[in-house]
Amino acid sequence: MLKPNQYEKDMHAGNIRSRLHNADRIVIKVGSSTITYNNAKPNLTNISRLVRVIADLTNQGKKVVLVTSGAIAIGIGRLDLVKKPDTVREKQAMATVGQCELMNIYSRLFSEYGHIVGQMLLTRDVTENDIRRHNVTNTFESLFHKGIIPIVNENDSVAVEEIKFGENDTLSAIVAKLIKADLLILLSDIEGLYETDPRKNPNAKMISIVEEVTDDIQACAAGAGTERGIGGMVTKLYAGKIATFAGTDMVIANGEDPSIIIDIINGKDVGTLFVSRKRKGERENE
Question: Which residue segments constitute the domains of the chain, with CATH numbers given?
Answer without folding.
Answer: 22-284 (3.40.1160.10)
